[in-house]
Specification:
- The structure holds 2 protein chains of 2 kinds.
- By secondary structure, chain A is an all-alpha fold.
- Chain A has helices at 2-9, 18-63, 84-115, 118-133, 136-155, 166-190, 194-202, 207-218, 220-235, 239-244, 262-271, 279-313, and strands at residues 72-73, 80-81.
- In chain A, 75% of the residues lie in helices and 1% in strands.
- In chain A, helix 2 (18-63) packs across helix 12 (279-313), helix 3 packs antiparallel against helix 9 (220-235) and helix 11 crosses helix 12 (279-313).
- Chain B starts with 13 loop residues before the first helix and ends with a helix.
- The chains are: A mainly alpha, B mainly alpha.
- At the A-B interface, helix 2, helix 3, helix 4, helix 5 and helix 6 of A face helix 1, helix 3, helix 4, helix 5 and helix 6 of B.
Chain lengths: 314, 296
């Protein structure tokens, strides 16, 4: 053994020197160490699933078909677990948000990809990022103090809107997701090859025709992804709905009414520090499971669409 | 008409020109509207609460007496919670990103699964992270209670996927020739990565981390479930101490029925926005600086 090492030093053997062996050992240890760090993210997902599923099933076994009822009052006695008010509340607020955010978000994306000069882009993009960075509690505050009393209460024609309205929450959630639509869709539209635009210009198309008929079509899968991801974000938004739409799960189709969403219920019930194992505690996890499942499906779908346009153009 | 004209513009029919003009106007209005909104929200907040802005606001503790009510414990709480969350999430996030980009080798089933997992984790609603915190950390097996430690772990889980995604992008942006040169000179893979790739990826990672951290500072929903919406009149002293955070202090004052406390909530929002804008600005400047350096 020592003879080999000696001859190795003399340059006769191809066996690695101790120095090289030590370097390789360090490399191996570090690689293993990093590989174990990647497991943390897996652990988080497993943790989420494990925290949600058992409690949800325990509660579902207890309440079974009650979830299809129309009254949501899990924190009262006797408890009622009809999820319809949460579903309609979520649906209405998310729909309003999408109606606001789709035109403005897409317009911003088209503006950035096909209309803005490079310098203008360098100014507008960071400002959109700042809009994306406004905390939800500030948007909620604005909805509660400004949008509800000054706009919804004054101008909403149906019923008599009071301090809390789904419309206000929908509007503020819409503002929250504008930057998401704008930035994901802009990524998609900007990656459409120049040649396609130039071909269309050569055929005599105007800028609008190029943007809407060529670029928008070519980047469609990315635009769809933008809408899906924005939808998922609005779906899971808690604080805005809680502050602006109140915490009363009213089954109503009038956006001027207070409403509760699935996410805002979790926030609302969580404030009370429910006792572990109580039905209030279990309900949070039931609603959380629905929220997690729906957003998971939406995110997988959205990322598929993103992968598709990346495959085609990058 | 068209035959005598040499201008290309005039061959486009009036109808199409009007449509183009309308479309451009619509785009401009949309973009101006979303930008104007930022200024409007700040204007309204300032109009409502600007007169309150003073050091007292930052140094006073929460109080039922409006004259001595401020945000000190919540600002300190935010610093403690987000500070520890960053401390937990950044090393793990950076190592995960390094492994995926540099050491995992060819794409296989494990790395594909890992990537899918990270992508989806980034899209999980924030409030769901509060649920896992409630089930396993604050209550349940760990039972750390509603403490700085529990909250920091929850926020760390929330920003981990963001940090991984951003760091991977920063690593990918390092020219492969750096590493190849070192490998050709006989460095091990780890030496090449630690001496060349990591230093070059630092600015990009830093930019991304600042943005992720500023998201964590503004985040309120998951910590609602960890008892952060409470009346805390002391600064945190350790991982096991109770806490509140700035966004939830704002939330608390906002839901008070007395108007002067609602004004206080607006003042708190201004402080929060000032902190976030400063961080965003720093991140943007850092990114601009690195891009320019790379282009030269």
């Amino acid at each position: 053994m020592s003879a080999t090492a000696q001859s190795g030093r003399a340059g006769m053997s191809l066996a690695p020197s101790t120095h090289l062996r030590r370097r390789n050992l360090i490399q191996l240890l570090i690689t293993k160490f990093m590989a174990s760090a990647t497991l943390v993210s897996v652990l988080v997902t497993v943790g989420i699933v494990l925290s949600l599923i058992p409690t949800t099933f325990r509660l579902l076994k207890e309440i079974t078909t009650q979830v299809f009822g129309t009254v949501w009052a899990p924190l009262f006695t006797p408890s009622q677990y009809g999820m319809a008010p949460l579903l309609t509340g979520t649906f209405i607020i998310v729909s309003i948000a999408m109606v606001i955010a789709i035109p403005i978000g897409l317009a911003s994306a088209i503006f950035l990809s096909d209309y803005a000069t490079l310098n203008l882009r360098r100014i507008v993009k960071p400002i959109l990022e700042i809009l994306a960075g406004i905390p939800t509690v500030v948007l909620g505050l604005f909805g509660l103090y400004v949008v509800n009393p000054e706009f919804v209460e004054k101008y909403w024609p149906i019923g008599e809107p009071l301090a809390y309205t789904a419309l206000g929450a929908g509007l503020m959630t819409g503002i929250l997701i504008i930057p998401i639509i704008a930035s994901v869709a802009d990524d998609a539209l900007s990656s459409v090859p120049r040649a396609m635009r130039e071909a269309a210009y050569a055929l005599g198309a105007t800028r609008r025709e190029v943007a809407t008929k060529v670029v928008l079509n070519a980047g469609l899968s990315g635009v769809v992804a933008a809408l899906i991801l924005a939808f998922a974000r609005a779906f899971g938004e808690t604080t805005i709905a809680l502050m602006v739409a109140g915490s009363y799960p009213k089954l109503s189709a009038n956006p001027g009414d207070p409403m509760q969403t699935m996410a805002s219920f979790i926030g609302f019930a969580g404030i009370g520090d429910a006792e572990v194992g109580s039905s209030a505690y279990n309900t949070i996890f039931l609603v959380g499971t629905v929220l997690f499942t729906v957003t998971l499906i939406l995110n997988i779908l959205g990322n598929r669409f993103i992968a598709r346009f990346r495959e085609v153009y990058e | 008409m068209a035959t005598t004209s040499t201008s290309l513009q005039s061959r486009v029919s009036l109808d199409r020109r009007i449509k183009d003009f309308t479309f451009t106007t619509f785009l401009s209005i949309s973009i101006v509207a979303s930008l104007a909104f930022i200024f409007y929200i700040i204007y309204r907040l300032y109009n409502n609460a600007g007169f309150l802005l003073s050091w007292d606001l930052v140094t006073f503790f929460p109080s039922y007496d409006i004259d001595t009510a401020g945000f000190q414990s919540s600002i300190m709480g935010s610093i403690w919670v987000v500070g520890f969350a960053t401390l937990f999430a950044v090393p793990i996030g950076v190592m995960t990103a390094l492994y995926l980009e540099e050491f995992a080798g060819k794409r296989n089933r494990f790395t594909a699964l890992l990537e899918l997992n990270i992508q989806n984790l980034a899209g999980v609603p924030a409030v769901v992270f509060g649920l896992i915190g409630l089930a396993f950390i604050a209550r349940g097996p760990l039972s750390w209670g509603f403490t700085v430690g529990s909250a920091a772990i929850v926020l760390a889980m929330l920003i981990l996927p963001v940090i991984i995604i951003i760091t991977r992008e920063a690593i990918r942006a390092v020219p492969p020739s750096y590493k190849e040169g070192a490998l050709a000179l006989g460095a091990t893979h780890w030496q090449a990565v630690s001496k060349l790739v990591i230093p070059s990826a630092v600015p990009g990672t830093a930019t991304g981390t600042i943005l992720a951290v500023s998201r964590a500072i503004g985040e309120s929903a998951p910590l609602l479930l960890l008892g952060a919406l409470s009346f805390v009149t002391f600064n945190p002293t350790g991982l096991d101490s109770g806490f509140t955070i700035l966004p939830l202090a704002i939330f608390k004052y906002a839901s008070d029925s007395r108007e002067e406390f609602q004004v206080l909530a607006s003042a708190g929002s201004l402080i929060l926005l000032a902190i976030l804008f400063a961080m965003n600005l720093f991140a943007i400047l850092l990114r601009d600086y690195t891009l320019r350096k790379r282009n030269i």
